[in-house]
Amino acid sequence: MKDHKDYLKEAIEMAAENVRKNLGGPFGALIVLDGKIIGRGVNRVTYHNDPTAHAEIVAIREACKNLQNFRLDNAIIYTSCEPCPMCLGALYWARISKIIFAASNQDAAEAGFDDSFIYEEIPLPLEKRSIPISKLEIPDYFKPFETWTEMEGKIEY
Amino acid sequence: MKDHKDYLKEAIEMAAENVRKNLGGPFGALIVLDGKIIGRGVNRVTYHNDPTAHAEIVAIREACKNLQNFRLDNAIIYTSCEPCPMCLGALYWARISKIIFAASNQDAAEAGFDDSFIYEEIPLPLEKRSIPISKLEIPDYFKPFETWTEMEGKIEY
Question: CB–CB of B141 and A5 under 8 A?
């Protein structure tokens, strides 16, 4: 039976291998449910021209596809590095049960991968954010939710 | 020439249409660069069993694919609803230039889509988070970054 360290070591090895193959950034993650690996991911941002293709997101998408479920209840993610806010948000939406990481955000920053800026931005009120964000008043703003509320047979999530 | 309201109205219409077709949640987004729509997205969480398939993420991925670039400099996203932390993080990584939304997070919460919990969790220190998250001490934790630093010909991002 593999333990936490074995899985984390594997995620680290995937991350290093991804760099050696020149397929993306130095990040790897795997998701385990009931002692079985159900999803793996390595950073594919540059390779797929997809800024959302962080290791954790890739692993979540694969695990959910394998389970045919948009929730990962009771699963654990092992990731070579502490998740950024995007990945952390994704892990919350996926209802992951536990997150175990090797390198901290500070370690990543030391290597040139600094996400502290985004961590600082997210809690700010809209008017203090660096990227301009604004609500535009528009009559139909609530229509999608209204349609949702009235819709019968919808799949809740 | 379309203005902000026209694009936002279209995103709202996409969101409502997505519900009517029973293909996912009541959210739509589109990305515009130089007066041209380069990416569209609607919520596909349940349809694709992908908890990361929020409208903004889907739109970012499509826009980046179309541009063959992992950055969306100078592009504007119009989204039917204020982005959740995951999508906000993704928009920062994508270097979007501006975010314009219709419904606020409070409006979404009223309709049963509440992301305030995730907004509150992200700034917390690790030990205060609801989903257990921990750093596991492991000798090779810095190896992926070391490999990255030494790697020649890598694509920086």
Answer: no
Query: What residue in B sits closest to A83 (Cα-Cα)?
Result: B133
Chain-chain contact of A91 with B131 (C-beta, under 8 angstroms): yes
Question: In terms of CA atoms, which chain A residue is nearest residue B4?
Answer: A136
CB pair distance less than 8 Å for A140 and B12 = yes
Largest pairwise CA distance in chain A: 58
For residue A115, what are the contacts with CB-CB under 8 A and spacing of at least 6?
A84, A85, A105, A108, A109
pLDDT tens per residue, range B10-46? 999 999 999 999 999 999 999 999 999 999 999 999 9
pLDDT band for position A130 (cuts 50, 70, 90):
very high
In 3D, which of A140, A103, A91, A121 has the Cα closest to residue B9? A140
Based on the residue annotation, tell me whether A56 is a catalytic residue of this protein: yes
Residues of B in contact with A67 (CB under 8 A): 49
* Percent of chain B's residues with pLDDT above 90: 97
pTM of this prediction?
A: 0.97
Q: What angle do CA B66, B67, B72 make, to 5 degrees?
A: 120
CB-nearest partner of B89 from A65, A89, A99: A89
- Quote the pLDDT of residue B22: 95
